[in-house]
Structures are given as C-alpha cells and as structure tokens.
Amino acid sequence: MTTPRPAILLFRNDLRLSDHPALTVAAAGGKPVICLYVNDPDAPDPIGRAQLWWLHHSLAALGRQIADLSGQLVLRAGKTRDVLGDVIRATGADAVHWSRRYTPNAIAADTALKAHLNDRGIHVESHAGRYLFEPWQIATKAGTPFRVFTPFWRSCLAQLDAAPAPLPAPDASFMRDLPSETLEGWGGLPTRPNWAAGFGSLWTPGEAGAMARLDSFLDKRAQGYAQGRDFPAATNVSNLSPHLQMGEITPRQILASLRRAEVLGDVGQRDGAKFLAEVGWRDFSAYLLYHNPTLPLEEFQPKFAPFPWRDDAKDLTAWQRGQTGYPIVDAGMRELLQTGTMHNRVRMIVASFLIKHLRINWRAGLSWFHDTLLDADVASNAASWQWVAGCGADAAPYFRIFNPITQATKFDPDGTYIRQWVPEIAALPDKYLGAPWKAPSAVLQAAHVTLGMTYPHPIVDHARARTAALAAFEGLSASAENVAIGDG
Ligand SMILES: Cc1cc2nc3c(=O)[nH]c(=O)nc-3n(C[C@H](O)[C@H](O)[C@H](O)COP(=O)(O)OP(=O)(O)OC[C@H]3O[C@@H](n4cnc5c(N)ncnc54)[C@H](O)[C@@H]3O)c2cc1C
C-alpha cells in the first residue's frame, strides 16, 4: 500500500488543534499533515505591536502542542506563495487547507493564492471555524444583509441549535524534521523598552490558556455577567477576546461549554443569553465588514463623512498616554498600555471622549487601538469605533455624548478602577475621583494632588466640548438637508 501524499495545513489566525475543520479534513484518510506558519512580509492586515507579542507566545504554545504529538510546527519567513512552493517541492504535498479569513484584504489575497496553487495542480480547500455562522448564511427574508443587530441575532438564534457540535482534535499523523526557522529569530517581542513586561503575568496565549480562561469564567465569573459586565472593577467578563482573535478557541466551543454550564446550573439563563449575544456582536461585526468592505475606512452612513475633525497632535498624545485630566479616560488608556486590553465600558467612554470631546477623527483612535490592543480585530474595531461615532450601522445616536464624570460615578462608584490605574489621585475622596478639579484646595492638598503638576488639569471643559460637538454634528445635518433640498 502506498503512503498518501501529504497535505499542508496553513495556519494563520486559527492557532489551535481542536474544533479545527481545516485540520480535520487535511488529516482525513490518514494523509500526513505538514503544519506550516508563514511569517509573510506582505500579509494582508498587518497586526499591531501588542498582538505581535501574543502571536509569538501563541505560536510557541502551538509548536509545543504539535511536538507533544510527535509532529512539528514548521516556521518559515517569506511570501506565502513562495514558501508553499518550496514546501510542496520538498515534500510532494498535493493539497493545502486553511481556515477562511473574512476581511477584504485577506479575501483578495486568499483568492489569488488559491488560483495560483490550482494552476499548479494543487488541491486547495478553505474551511469555516472562525464564527458561529458564515456571513452569507444569515440574511433578511428579502435575501439582503441585515443592518441592525437585533434581527440579525434573532435569525442566528433560530439556527443555532441545528449548528454542528465542535470537532475534537483529529488523530492526525503529523510530519516532522522539515527545515524551520525559530520564533526568536523573528523578533516579535519588544526589548528596549520591554513595554510588554506586564503582559506575561496576565495572559496565557495558546489553546490551553483559552480553554482554562473559558472554564474559569463559566465556573466562577459568569454568574452576574448581565449586570457586572458594565463595571470595570468587577471580574464578570471573560477576557476571551485575544484568544478568539488568534483563533485559539472557537465560538462554537464557547457555545457548547455555555450550554453545559447552563444545564449544570452554573450559569443562569439571563447571564448566559447576554454573554452569547456579545459573542454574537463579534459575528455581527465580521458580517458587517464582509458586506461593507470599506467599514474600516469610510463612514457607514455617508452623511457623517464631512465632519469637521480637529487635527491636534498634542490632544491626541494626551489621550493616548492617559493624561487628559479626566480620570476615567486616563484609567482606561493606561490600562490599555499596561495590560494590552481595556474594559468594554471604558472603551466606549474613551472613544466617545476622543471623537466628541476632542473632535479627533475616529480613525486615529481605531489605529491606536489596532496597535495597542491584544484583541485588535479589523471588523470589531471598525464596527465599534463607528458605533461610538454615531456613523456606523445600528450606531449610538450622535447626540449621545458620554459624560466622563457621571460615567465614572455610575460605573466605578467606589473608585476601585480609577485608583488602580491613576494612583496619583488615589487618596482623593470617592466623590472627587471622577473630577479632581472640583475638589476644594484643602482636599487636594490633603490627598497630595497638585493639579497641573502631579495630575493634569482637564484638557477640555466638558460642557463647552459637548456644546461644540453637538453644534458640529448639527451642522452636518443642516448641510445634508441643504444638499437634499438643492437636489430636489
Ligand atoms: C471603541 C471600541 C473598540 C473595540 N475594538 C475591539 C477589537 O478590536 N477587538 C475585539 O475583539 N473587540 C473590540 N471591542 C469590543 C469589546 O470591547 C471587546 O470585545 C471586549 O471588551 C472584550 O472583553 P471580553 O473578552 O472580556 O468580553 P466579554 O464581555 O466576555 O464578551 C465575550 C466575547 O464577545 C465578543 N464581544 C464582546 N463585546 C463585543 C462588542 N461590542 N463587539 C464585538 N465583539 C464583542 C468578544 O469576542 C468577547 O471576547 C471594541 C469596543 C469598542 C467600544
């Protein structure tokens, strides 16, 4: 009996072995599997610096997992098509499998790669796995894409129970002893300065870390999620987003574990439904991007495009560094720099502050998040920034301007979150933590706070900034109406 020719599993943002349809099909029929990761300088959607840290550790974890199964994760740098050509020539592989990617850049790259390989007689198959549903599976009765989350999600829920269960890791026969580079040689980790020094104690990249995170969330922290998820000092959120982003865990695995936890009574119906709906927002963001490929670049609602943005490098830097003088904003921006993440409630507050208080283009915020978030995702990042700006699909109305003072009082009532990230004002009484400039000078003195020295004065006045933002947005509506009248 002849040994079948090997198949290549081209890993990208799917760094796991279980519930991996591409791997399962590649290994079917006893075909030897070559596990390949290519560090491609021309990769579509280059990732940011924080995510490079995650990628390094996630690849290391995957490499160990495959080595434990007597295989090898082959690491190669170069253009994907050239590396594949080399590996195919060296091994006689006749098939390439990969998990589908959904951004416009990645779709274009993968379509071209598939045609190139097919022309050379190589079988290429792309597979699902990243989302609950493929973006073309969900549509309105008229067959058009949804633009609003609630009916989109209702349609998903109606089809959820018929969805296939997650796949176990296949019993694959992996190839080994192929030429490979080292992760260290790729230089993905920051050195001088090592701004990621704090990440290692908080995160465990890799499939095992993702599963452990999910289990501990469902065991302990999911109870009370529906309410607790809004409070940045509470521990009710899952912190699964960087794992999901790198494909170390799938939404179907999350769904299956959630259903088990609900049956066991570990997670209540309300908390479970809310958590699943948030996973649904991830699907919805990818769905929006798939059907609206310019989402990261252009306003989803074109009437917002002529907004008179301010170009102010000093204010942008103050926002990025957490030096705006608004403690809840500064806490979030510092949490981001020190941990690679930021709580969702605070992401909304800081994004609203940049767009509406500072009137700085949402694309500047999007690109800072892209570089600094461990979970940076082209679709979720773009959809969320447009949501806050009011120009997205199903977005918050433009006149909803988060008040950073009342948001702090409401969602960080005892100041735990602000005190953790803005320690220089920690000794202030709770009532002044959201707005230190309102504290009498004796109170500031007693707390060792000197505004302008130990902590900044607010860079904008809230009430004036709000009025200016509303005027700018209303100016847009007026000019849109004038265009409409003129057109008529
Ligand atoms: C301005 C802004 C930018 C954002 N950029 C990103 C991004 O680049 N990548 C990213 O994954 N999320 C982004 N989000 C969404 C959200 O803040 C994070 O997904 C969430 O904070 C991750 O924490 P968690 O895993 O503990 O979430 P949980 O509350 O435990 O939710 C579970 C999962 O659901 C998904 N999810 C939750 N909320 C959202 C949401 N609003 N939109 C899309 N998916 C969601 C995530 O995959 C998350 O891991 C952004 C939100 C805002 C306001």
From TrEMBL:
Cofactors required: FAD; (6R)-5,10-methylene-5,6,7,8-tetrahydrofolate
Name used for this protein in its record: Deoxyribodipyrimidine photo-lyase
Transmembrane regions listed in the UniProt entry: none
GO molecular-function terms, A-Z: deoxyribodipyrimidine photo-lyase activity; DNA binding; FAD binding
Secretion signal, residue range per the UniProt entry: none
PANTHER family documented for this protein: CRYPTOCHROME, CRYPTOCHROME CIRCADIAN CLOCK 5 ISOFORM X1
Boundaries of every Photolyase/cryptochrome alpha/beta domain copy: 5-132
Similarity comment: Belongs to the DNA photolyase family.
SUPFAM superfamilies in the record: Cryptochrome/photolyase FAD-binding domain, Cryptochrome/photolyase, N-terminal domain
Keywords assigned: Chromophore, FAD, Flavoprotein, Lyase
Organism: Aliiroseovarius halocynthiae
Site (Electron transfer via tryptophanyl radical): W309, W362, W385
Binding sites annotated in the UniProt record for FAD: Y225, F275, D375, A376, D377
Note describing how the cofactor binds: Binds 1 FAD per subunit.
GO biological process: photoreactive repair; response to light stimulus
EC number: 4.1.99.3
InterPro entries: Crypto/Photolyase_FAD-like_sf, Crypto/Photolyase_N_sf, Cryptochr/Photolyase_FAD-bd, Cryptochrome/DNA_photolyase_1, DNA_photolyase_1_CS_C, DNA_photolyase_N, Rossmann-like_a/b/a_fold
Reaction it catalyzes: cyclobutadipyrimidine (in DNA) = 2 pyrimidine residues (in DNA)
Keyword Lyase recorded: yes
